[in-house]
Amino acid sequence: MVNDYCIGFYSSDTRKITILHDWIWDAVGPEYVLKKAKDSKNYYEQSMEVREICIQLFNHTIGVHTLQVQVSCEMRGDTAIRGLFQYLYDGQVFVTYDAETGTWIAAVTEAIPLKQFMDTKIMWLAYVKSYHETECIENLKKFIQHGKHVLEQKVPPEVRVLIRHSTDGADILRCHVTGFYPRDIDVTWVRDGWTTMVETWSSGILPNHDKTYQIRKTLEIDPKDGHTYACVVNHSSLQKPIEKTASVSTGSWILGLSAAGITILFLLGLGLAGFLIWKKKQNLNADEKKDRAPLSASNSR
């Protein structure tokens, strides 16, 4: 992954790496990809050893259990930030590589036997040290250089505020923000232009099918409280925040609903009028045919 873009994956069945973007090929070249396929094979074999030890430590002879390897590094501007290299078992951090000592640190007491075992793997420690301190950052710099057109794009959000009247008499305000990139965004409900409100519910930031993101936040209020509420959105693609106001004076939600209802009724009315006109023409044509039928029969005699 680079930011939130998956750049490729390794298959333990084919022992090959699949690259998902042309700019990754441009950044590292085919020879490096072949080398990383061999490294990934070592990753896999090492992970299987770690998994077996974890299973033994917890006596997990049945059930489904997961082992994850997290490797990352970070660039902030031109500054390289040292990342991490760690193993997680069933979602819990188990052992982490310590760059200062060049050894592994047990995150929990149960991981001490695993830490001792991994400290004996000198070749693997040397690889982890090299990747952690050098290779990861060098690759990231190449990816940023060749993928700027993707990684630095900014897509502004679309913001909609909807009002729904609940059965218990409260108004539910929903702010739906969608279509934005990059992922980081700030969405806040504000009362009377300055009081920040704590939302009743938030969907969290979710992915869209087109690589953009969306988020929904709702706020439950008394429709008779006389205050004005707005959804305020801050995003790196915007020169200034987007502010969408929800009018919640008595009956406002009905007005909003009525506007939609009028549109629907208007369209239904047009459709019904067209149908009636058509039906009337069909009836007139049928009557004309009936009137002409006897006359035609009389002339034939």
Automatic annotation (TrEMBL):
Membrane-spanning ranges: 253-278
Keyword Signal found: yes
GO cellular component, one term: extracellular space
Domain Ig-like: 157-249
InterPro entries for the chain: Ig-like_dom, Ig-like_dom_sf, Ig-like_fold, Ig/MHC_CS, Ig_C1-set, MHC_class-I_related, MHC_I-like_Ag-recog, MHC_I-like_Ag-recog_sf
GO biological process: immune response
Keywords noted in UniProt: Disulfide bond, Glycoprotein, Membrane, Signal, Transmembrane, Transmembrane helix
SMART domains, per database record: IGc1
Signal peptide residue numbers: none
Location of the protein in the cell: Membrane
Statement: the UniProt record of this protein carries the keyword 4Fe-4S: no
Pfam families: C1-set (PF07654), MHC_I (PF00129)
Main location: membrane
Gene3D superfamilies in the record: Immunoglobulins, MHC class I-like antigen recognition-like
Sequence similarity: Belongs to the MHC class I family.
Protein name: Major histocompatibility complex class I-related gene protein-like isoform X2
Species per Swiss-Prot/TrEMBL record: Geotrypetes seraphini
Lineage start: Eukaryota, Metazoa, Chordata, Craniata, Vertebrata
Gene name per UniProt: LOC117350773
